[in-house]
Every structure is written in C-alpha cells, then in structure tokens.
Design a protein that fits this description.
Strand 4 and strand 5 form a beta hairpin. The chain has one domain: Maf protein, CATH 3.90.950.10. By secondary structure, the chain is of the alpha/beta class. Helices cover 34% and strands 22% of the residues. Helix 4 packs across helix 5. It has a 6-stranded mixed beta sheet. Bound molecules: inosine 5'-triphosphate (ITT). The site of inosine 5'-triphosphate has 22 residues, from strand 3.
C-alpha cells in the first residue's frame, strides 16, 4: 500500500514514513512527482492550507492524498509564526533564518524563560475522489529555548523544548519525537476516524 503525502518537506516526510511503516504503508511525497505543481498556501488557517494541498493534489492525481499544515505558535507573540512558520523570515527562508528571527523577536521583548510558552500545531487533511475530506488536529505544548540545542529533526526543533522532558525536539531521536509530537498526536486522531471514513 502506498500513500501520497502532498508535501515537499523531507523532515515531515521522514516522520510520516516511520509512523506509517508500522501500518504497512509506504510513503511518497511531491518530490517523487516533479510534474505536480506547488500548491500556493493562500489560506489564513492551518485547515484551509491543508485542504488546499490535499484536495488539489487528489483532484490532479485521482488518488487518496494526505496533507499536513503545521506551525509553531508562541504565546507572547500572539500565536505567531503560526500559519506563516515556514515563511517567518521571508519567502523561501531557511530553517536557520526562521530560528534566528524567532530568537530575535523574543529577545527584544526581554521576557523571562517561564514566559516563553509555545505549542506546535498540525492539521492533517485526507482527501479522496468522491469523498468529503477528513480533518484532524494535534498539538504539542512546550517553550522556546534561549539557544538552539540538538542536531536532529528540522525546522524549529532546536528551539522547541518539550514540556515533559525538558529536551528540545532536536535532542530527541526520530522515534522519541514520534511518540509525543503534534504530528504524532494528529496521526493518532486520524487513525481513530480513518476506518469509518474509508467505508463511507
Ligand atoms: P509543505 O507545505 O510542502 O508540506 P512546508 O515546510 O511549507 O512544507 P508548512 O507550510 O506546514 O510546511 O510549514 C510548517 C513549518 O513549520 C515548517 O516549515 C517548519 O518550519 C515548522 N514545523 C512544522 N512542524 C515542525 C516540526 O515537527 N518540527 C519543527 N518545525 C516544524
């Protein structure tokens, strides 16, 4: 069984590959299909953007497609970078540039560590021909570190401290992150609803 994920992000894809391998699914992403277009993320919410990605690619391929729209929401920044997480430091910004911008924003507000509360959010949408899309969410509470720590993961992982263990997401192995992350929690919610949705 193969499932197409409407993403070009290899960090997300690695996590989905590990999580779905236990379910017997092989994963492909948009980098395996150069002929498929980039879907513009014009929505104002995670759900709108995840729907745009899943439904556009499902219509173009006629296949069942999963999309993930996710981001980091920092309390003292009013939930930013949120849906703009990938583009926080500008269009096509690198992870390093986005992380530097986040540290800069928090430094200028001169707040204490206990006020650096944040959460990671994922909305997953599964789209398939002739079906209403399935939508689920997952969140991971934590706080923003003052310096980056750890070499694993992607995106904001070196700055995101897990509330439970005090480790950054980049100090966790892929397996450890996949036990507790926003993406893992969203996938768990998806699996509760998926069998019945498939039967419809
Ligand atoms: P696709 O749209 O092709 O899936 P993207 O990177 O543009 O890839 P998003 O629009 O969902 O994905 O942006 C999410 C950004 O939020 C992503 O680029 C990361 O910077 C950050 N992010 C999401 N999940 C993360 C995680 O598990 N660890 C660290 N950063 C994460």
């Amino acid at each position: 069984k193969t499932l197409l994920i409407a993403t070009r992000n290899e960090g997300k894809t690695r996590e989905f590959k590990a999580m779905f391998s236990q379910l017997g699914y092989a994963i492909k992403n948009l980098n395996d299909f150069p002929e498929l277009p980039d879907v513009a993320e014009t929505g104002m919410t995670f759900e709108e953007n995840a729907r745009l990605k899943a439904e556009t690619i499902s219509e173009l391929t006629g296949e069942m497609v999963l999309a993930d729209d996710s981001g980091l929401m920092v309390d003292v920044l009013g939930g930013l970078p949120g849906v703009w997480s990938a583009r926080f430091a500008g269009d096509h910004a690198t992870d390093a540039a986005n992380n530097a911008k986040l540290l800069h924003e928090l430094a200028s507000t001169a707040i204490s560590p206990e006020k650096r509360k944040a959460k990671f959010h994922t909305t997953l949408v599964v789209a398939a021909p002739e079906k209403d899309s399935l939508v689920v969410e997952g969140e991971w509470p934590g706080e923003i570190a003052t310096i980056p720590k750890g070499d694993d993961g992607f995106g904001y992982d070196p700055l995101f401290v897990d509330e439970e263990t005090g480790r950054t997401a980049a100090q966790m192995t892929l397996e450890q992150k996949n036990q507790v992350s926003h993406r893992a929690r969203a996938l768990k919610n998806l699996l509760k609803k998926w069998p019945e949705w498939l039967r419809q």
